[in-house]
Amino acid sequence: MRHYDAVVIGTGPAGQKAAIQAAKLGKSVAIIEKGSVLGGAQVNTGTVPSKALREAAMHLTGAGKRGLFGESYRVKKTITIRDLVSVSQQVIRNEWEVIREQLDRNGVDLLWGKAHFEGPNLVQIVGPDHAEMVTGDVFVLCVGTRPATPDHVPFNDNNILTSDSFLQVDRLPRSLIVVGGGVIGTEYACIMATLGVKVTLVEGRPKLLGFIDSEISEALQFYMRREGVTLRLGEKVDRIYEIPEEERQNTNGSGGPQVVAQLESGKTLKAECLLYAIGRQGVCGDLGLDNVGVAYDDRERLSVNERYQTSVPHVYAAGDVIGFPSLASTSMEQGRRAMCHALGTEIENWNTELFPYGIYGVPEISMVGKTEEQLTDEGIPYEAGIASYKEIARGQLLGDEFGMLKVLIHQENHTILGVHAIGSGATEIIHIGQAVMAHGGKAEYFINNVFNFPTLAEAYKVAAYNGLNKLAHV
Ligand SMILES: Cc1cc2nc3c(=O)[nH]c(=O)nc-3n(C[C@H](O)[C@H](O)[C@H](O)COP(=O)(O)OP(=O)(O)OC[C@H]3O[C@@H](n4cnc5c(N)ncnc54)[C@H](O)[C@@H]3O)c2cc1C
Ligand SMILES: NC(=O)c1ccc[n+]([C@@H]2O[C@H](COP(=O)([O-])OP(=O)(O)OC[C@H]3O[C@@H](n4cnc5c(N)ncnc54)[C@H](O)[C@@H]3O)[C@@H](O)[C@H]2O)c1
Asked: Which sites bind NAD(+) (predicted)?
């Protein structure tokens, strides 16, 4: 039986970085994967395919360039699912190779099969054609999540779909109901609307993306409505069912409605497909955690302390399995930090407050730090400095007249408390604000330093002037 200093379960972003960190610290490490491919949700069903789909949609429809070339600008008249999928498959294959090479290069043992704890330090791995046992001193559980699929929704892989099965659909539906205005629902609603699909989004709360700054979500909602998306906010779905085939053919013909969503308010929505995206569910139930003494909640997720340690000291967890924010970006860093602590290597920064969020809707959104609502609730005095992309030469060059950057500035000491961006490059330029915040920088930093011209980064300077000018008049 092989013994390892560290054993990681799951090859998603959390697991990859945990395993490589152990190898870099000179430890023997194994990583276990139950699927047939590497990379978890990030590479196969989540981040990469959805972003590849978005890039393809943006490129093929010319969206984002319409401010420059006119509303009717379109690169390709008819877009097939093949156009979209081919881009995504190429990127996914490349990611598999990159992960494989990184693991090999660092001497991480990759063990294929489903991991199951047989004792506190003993794991059985059952693969497609073999089974083996390994022991480990420390474990990092990075098993991720799967889409929540409540029993009352008749999922069928054809027209009532989760975000996993949505990627397998071989046609572009003419109409789509999206249930859930969280990150997945919002991103796919935007992508599909860009492709010309008639989208209706139902969200139980009064706004999309509950955790983002309200001004930004209002701007997003305005843009989505302008692109033809119907938003049913503050509404919940009561019942979802397929229209029987006979009725469909008799009344609608092909491409017509196939699915009905009845809302609690009494409204009836019909569309060719429905995407159900109301959150994700853990997969800890069949890990054998009873044999270790680690408990999981009713959604099969794990609780950890600030060092990513479960209630059993040698067992750590990172990534989606520990809940919010459930991002590939944060999962990687959680995995790395968990492994460092497990192997007795302290790292300097345990701060999670500057973890950024990137939401790849159309338009793109990003944030770091506090929202206006949080600052108000916490009684922190601030002023908002705003730059509209209309005032930025690069915004004009890109044809993005809609974007904006908002910098929240402490009223007294002028430190930066939060940065919120919507529009082209939002997920990139956010890191400028993040770096300044990490170093305790003030709004004056943006005024007193020169930025390349023309860049979107210039928006920081304009926002800082705007905020400080307002403060001068307080
Ligand atoms: C549609 C969609 C879009 C997304 N877009 C973004 C985005 O743009 N940016 C972003 O930052 N995040 C995004 N995310 C979130 C991101 O994909 C996840 O946060 C990330 O993949 C979580 O990483 P993880 O390592 O925790 O788990 P996962 O990536 O889920 O990987 C877990 C791995 O563990 C394996 N596993 C599970 N149980 C066992 C077992 N018993 N034995 C062996 N192996 C096991 C699984 O097979 C899987 O490979 C998106 C998610 C979705 C669904
Ligand atoms: N760009 C990114 O970083 C990215 C992209 C996609 C997904 N993800 C991650 O994937 C995870 C899952 O995303 P998600 O969007 O499925 O979940 P979520 O929890 O973010 O959002 C679910 C939404 O559904 C709503 N809802 C719940 N029940 C409802 C009902 N019956 N009717 C109408 N609305 C209802 C909730 O109010 C909530 O807004 C998230 O944690 C997210 O971080 C990240």
From this structure: 180-187, 203, 279
187 is in an annotated binding site: yes
Digit-coded pLDDT (tens) for 242-272: 998 878 865 555 568 899 999 999 999 999 9
Other beta carbons less than 10 A from residue 431's beta carbon: 15
| Residue 328 beta carbon below 6 angstroms from any ligand 1 atom | yes
Residue among 69, 19, 57 nearest 401 (CA): 69
> What is the percent of the chain with per-residue pLDDT over 90, rounded to a whole number?
84
Structure tokens that stand for 57 in this block: 């949609």
180 is in an annotated binding site: yes
Provide the CATH number for the domain formed by 2-145+281-352 in this structure.
3.50.50.60
CATH H superfamily, domain 160-276 = FAD/NAD(P)-binding domain (3.50.50.60)
- Residue 310 beta carbon below 6 angstroms from any ligand 1 atom: no
Nearest atom within ligand 1 for CA of residue 287: 41
Q: Are 241 and 259 in contact (CB under 8 A)?
A: yes
Ligand 1 atom closest to residue 15's alpha carbon, by position in its atom list = 25
> For 363-471, which CATH superfamily applies?
FAD/NAD-linked reductase, C-terminal dimerisation domain (3.30.390.30)
Given the cut 0.90, state whether the ipTM is greater than it.
Answer: yes
The radius of gyration of the chain's CA atoms, rounded to the nearest angstrom, is 24
Question: Taking all residues of the chain, what is their mean pLDDT, rounded to a whole number?
Answer: 93
- 196 CB near ligand 2 (under 6 Å): no
Shortest-distance Cα residue to atom 41 of ligand 2: 326
